Each structure stands twice: as C-alpha cells, then as structure tokens.
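Protocol step 4 of 5: obtain the predicted structure for the target chain.
Materials: sequence only (see below). No template structures provided, no constraints applied. The aim of this step is simply to have a reference model before the mutagenesis design in step 5. Sequence pasted as it appears in the construct record:
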Amino acid sequence: MRILALDQGTTSTRGLVADDSGAVEIVHSVRHAQHFPAADRVEHDPMELLANLRAVIAAAGKVDAIALSNQGESCLAWDAVTGAPLSPVIVWQDRRTEARLAGMAGAAPMVRARAGLPLDPYFSASKLAWLGDNERRVQDAHRAGRLRLGTTDAFFLQHLTGRALTDVTTASRTSLMSLDTGDWDPELCRLFGVPLDCLPEIRPTVSGFGEIDGVPVAAAVVDQQAALYGHGCRAPGDAKITFGTGAFALAVTGPERPAEDDSGLLPTVAWRIGDETTYAVDGGVHAAGAAVEWAQRIGLLDGPAALAGFEAAPAIDRGLAFVPALSGLAAPHWDGSAAGLFIGMTGATTREDMAQALIEGIALRAAEVIARMGQGGPVARISMDGGLARSPYLCQFLADVTGAEIALPATEELTGVGAAQLAALGLGATLPASPLRATVRPRPCDREGRMARFAGAVDRARGWRD
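Step 4 output (structure tokens):
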C-alpha cells in the first residue's frame, strides 16, 4: 500500500509517499514565491501553489490514497463555479487586519468562548472579511451568487477533485467555527462579516474528500495537526514541536474541549476520526525558520549550517538576546505590535554572537510556549521535527532551557507521515510509526536566569512601538 501525502506549506510544496513497510520517500519538492506588497502583507499566488501540487501528484506515480495537509490559516476568495481565484492567498503571517481587530476588542470574549481563539490577524476570519470589503471582484462574485471563501485546502480540492471541502482542524483555525459543535457558527460569521453560505462544507479529518484521477483523497488536515499525529502523540499530555517557517507546539488533551485558562495557549481540534473528536492545545512562534531566512537575506548568516554549533558560552548568559518578533508575538503574549530586536550588543559583539543569539531566541520563544503546556507539572518529553531540528545547538539549548527530554524522530517529514497515516485509516489500514534517531537530554544550567533575561528582552520588544 502506497499513500501520497501532499504537504502544501508556507514556503514549499512537498510530496511524501509512505508505504506499509515503513518506508517514506520525498518524491518531489518545489518552493514557491513569497510576495510582500506592503510591510504588513504576505501573499502567495494560488495558481502557482496549485501547479506545484499537480507536479507533486504527477511525480508520485501509482498510489492507493492521497492526504492533503495545508498551511492552516492562509485563505483566499475564488469563483464557486469556475474555480478561478479572485484574490491572492493571504498568508497566515499577514497583519493587514490589525487595526480592524483592534476596533472589535469588545467582542473578544465572545470569540474566545465560541471559537476558542483570540482576536488576531493570524486567523482567517478577518482576512476573509477584508477581501469582501476591499476587493471588487469578490464583491461582484458575491452579488452574482458565485463567491467561495475559504482556506487553501478547499480551493485546491475544488480544482483537484471538483469539490470545495475543508476539514474540522482547518475550520477550527478560522475563528468562524464553533469549537463545541464543529460547524460554522452563524454568530461568528455575522460578527466578522463573512457570509456563511460562501464557506465550504466541513468534514471529519478522515473522510471522503473526492478523488484525484480515481484515487481517493482520504484525509485532509492542518499541517501542525498532521505532524502531531505523525509524532505518535495520542494520549493526553503527549506533545510535539515543529520548527518550520514558524515553530508550533501542540499537546493532546483528549476527547473534551480544553478548559479556558490564562496560559495564552489555544484550544484546537487535533483531529476527528469518525464521530470521535480529539482536542489539543496549541502555541505558535511566528518566526523560526522565517527568522533564519531573514538573517540570510540581510547577510547575517551564510546559511543554516552556521547554526550547528558555537564555541562561545550561550549568548543569553553573556547578556545578548534576540527576540524573533518579526511578525509580532503569538502565544503566549498575542501582541501583534511587538517588534523583533537584538538587545545587549556592545562594540565587541560579533556576527557569530548575533547568529548565536538568533538561534537561542528561537529556542527561548519555543520554551515560553512549552512551559505553559504542562498539565500538572513541566513537560518532561517533547518530540521535535522540522528543518531547524538539524541544528544540534538548537536541540541541546531547547532541552537545557526547558528541562525536557527532546525526542528526534528518524525522519523530519512528520507532517507528511502523519497525513499519510490518517489517510491509511480511511482505507481501514495503518502505517508503521516513525522510529527515533536520537534523544537529547537536558544538562544543568541556570534555566530561571535565562528565561528571566529573555522575558526582559520580550518586554522591551513589546513596548518598542509605543
């Protein structure tokens, strides 16, 4: 049995084929352009993404089922009849709706109660409303009864299978779905000004999403939830963190919606299989790999290999810190006004010192999230994947500063593995779990001191624009 996982991510589209022997293979991978039309805007060309998906499908050969994982909160408008895009993809990093949401502050408790999410441009609802308010083609299509609004998965599925569908994990990231019922919430749609009848049907994660050239699409899921499943996280307390464009930690909580608390983490749907929903708590760092790419772009880094290790003592112990708030601060702060900054530089600070502070800053932001995830105590073990998992320095520093054991699976492609495993369930089968390649154990260090120094730097980043 061969299953193709289509992993359509923020910077690339990848195809992973997993089989029932446990083998996994990337059959095709292609990057796409990032468009920054203004300081607060990030966009993708939807037809470029679709063409890349088609290229991945063509490269995979014969498969028995297909799974689709998506970026989560990225969204667009398109013609419900022809499928033609009516807007670019507005990417999850985009902040154009900051002012609009600031004016809706009084509705924050209602949105949190119904959707489980804060008012933040990260989520899809305000982006979709912006399209309806500002794009003439979107308005014309709505008047003609031809408008479809949704996340990228529904757009891809309309083109690939003829059916505009989404799954419950993706819908849970829009701020338009009731976290209790798993259906679009009419009150939330009215609040944001998004017409409910323009949204795609919500289905369980493992479900029939149509066929591509006769092959069933048996699962669709947000990339981070796919990775959670791929890490083998099934029991309450099981946790993973994926270091991609951002760094996203999720921990399984079980069959009941997580209770409201002040952790700054968000309740979300991990997956729905049949009639059974599993929930999780989620915490994201917006800039992880994105901070590394930025550092390369400005010449601070020659390449990611420069982050493998450093001869000097940790930069944070020497008073140098970097806060990677390049798109504001997500969990647990939820402060879109925060700015990225280095703090503690002197005339003796070197380029290597700044690179070291950068990788530590990514790890320290992740540690802020992980520290809020413990149920009844600190997280003792967390599974880690993503491109930055190749940095031994990051892995060891994160273990040291959290006190948690870091499990490193043999493959970094846990999003694809998890999506493929979910699709296998749709065929009534299972795929083998990914083995471990290493375990990183924490070493003694001044954890409290490091976190306190970093918290002071975060406070400065949050007040920078005031």
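Step 4 remarks: The two ends are 57 Å apart (CA to CA). The chain has a mean pLDDT of 93.
Proceed to step 5.
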